[in-house]
Amino acid sequence: MAITFAEHLDLLDLHGRAAVASLAQLGPTDTLPPQGVPVHPATREHWATLEIWAWSLEHPGLHWSGRPEPTPPPDHAALVAAIGSELTRLEEGLLAAGPDTAIDFFGTPGTTGQVARLLAHEAIGVAHAASLAAGRVTPDLSPAVATDGVDRALAHWAEPDAHVAWRPDPVVLRATDTARSWYLECGSSSRGDHAAFRPTGTRAPGAIVSTDAATLLWWMHGYPTADSLLEVSSSDDLLLRALRQGLGHDVDPAPRRRGWWRG
């Protein structure tokens, strides 16, 4: 079942406030999982994202790049407090606009419903990382919300026009608790330094990754996942590697065929 605009606003509020509470427990030099990013720059980036969208809602028809550059809050405590203020500003702006107001969405025509969905999952991701780092309980995700997160992330991260060698067989990601499947074509550059994926049609897969929707979502984001929670089958290890690299996971260098001139 699709998540509604009102539900996305509730998620933005619940997880956004949870993120604020957890970030307030952390110091600026602490780090956030899964990649060990320092708290202060990550918090500043989150604040900047919220501020840009709040400004855009208040100035329909104008692009955020033309606004006066805001001054970031001076320290970590002020930055966390500012995130709380931006959440209130966003919630009020989205409620006033409703789901169908036109807005620029990453350079293409979009709607405020898309913005609410984007920011709900931004808040979910930040709350998850900050709560884990602070030793706090992460708000639960229902299977439907986690599935919505997987769907949004895959669409947002896909690179359909990437200059890679696309492999013929797809990877299938399966959410066992919502019966959703995503078929992805994956490919790597000739040097192996870039990989990408894009949605594709249903056909026999070369690899399958299967688990519940929430575990699948956090696996995609690079969080360590117990082998007992994740079912992976593959007839092509390079295919699965290309997917993981396209998701931004840390992967070992791909084996390279020795050139004839090297002996």
Features:
263 residues; alpha+beta; Four Helix Bundle (Hemerythrin (Met), subunit A); Nonspecific Lipid-transfer Protein, Chain A; 10 strands; globular
Description:
With 263 residues, the protein is of the alpha+beta class. The chain has two domains: 5-139, dinb family like domain (Four Helix Bundle (Hemerythrin (Met), subunit A), Up-down Bundle), CATH 1.20.120; 154-246, Nonspecific Lipid-transfer Protein, Chain A. It contains seven helices and ten strands. The chain has helices spanning 5-24, 39-58, 76-97, 112-134, 143-157, 213-220, 237-246; strands at 31-32, 37-38, 102-105, 108-111, 165-166, 171-175, 180-188, 195-199, 207-211, 231-234. The strands form three sheets. Strands 5, 6, 7, 8, 9 and 10 form a six-stranded mixed β-sheet that branches. Strands 1-2 form a two-stranded antiparallel sheet. A hairpin with a 4-residue loop joins strand 1 and strand 2. Helix 1 packs antiparallel against helix 3 (76-97), helix 1 (5-24) runs parallel beside helix 4 (112-134) and helix 5 (143-157) runs parallel beside helix 6 (213-220). The radius of gyration is 20 Å and the shape is globular. The N and C termini lie far apart (58 Å). Residues 257-263 have low confidence and may be disordered.
